[in-house]
Amino acid sequence: MRxxxxxxxxxxxxxxxxxxxxxxxxxxxxxxxxxxxxxxxDQRGLKQxxxxxxxxAEHSFRKALELGPDxxxxxxxxxRVAMRRHDYREALxxxxxxxxxxxxxxxxxxxxxxxxxxxxxxxxxxxxDQAASFADAGCLTERGVDLWxxxxxxxxxxxxxxxxxxxGTPPGLSFRIGTCQLHLGHFEAARTELERELLIAPGNAAxxxxxxxxxxxxxQPAQALEELDTAVRLGxxxxxxxxxxxxxxxx
Length: 251
Hints:
Elements: H1 2-50, H2 54-67, H3 72-84, H4 88-129, H5 137-150, H6 173-183, H7 187-200, H8 205-217, H9 221-233, H10 242-250
């Protein structure tokens, strides 16, 4: 009788747990589906942006945010739309939010990789401890090492000038932030952002060109001329009158 009652208790517990597990699985599937739809909307928005359809692009990015309120690509896209409309203050707010979310996403991905590495290490130690009992323990250890070596590693510097977390920041984002700061007359902030961009994408000719303008505004003509020469060497079209203004400022 006692055995039967224990069976019923176990069965009732399982019946209680299974719906919860099914519910969490369904929620994860819905979340993944929403993220996939948001990514498609982001791609559509970028295509519309390239074709100059700013209203349609803005609509796509905002629909993406309805599906994923923390979608950094959607904020990045809205910032680009605002820049095309010359609304640099609004663009700046979107772009700064995008960078914050890119960094958060990269940090979460890094934490997941560290958890996976720790789990692999636990398997390795367990396999080593049981080597006398299990003939394939060494095989498990090697498999763990192979998985760890082949998994994406996070390393190197994550902070740019000013201590801003640049993990996950795509090329072009700091350039756009710096360009907004330039248009708003925040020349020191613009310099910092453009230098951050060049840490990520040293071949960005437009970043070198805008940095030349910023340095001229900051009364550093010698450095401005170096940046202008670098931009031209990388293929940027030299703005009319910029070189002569820099040369005049050096006198």
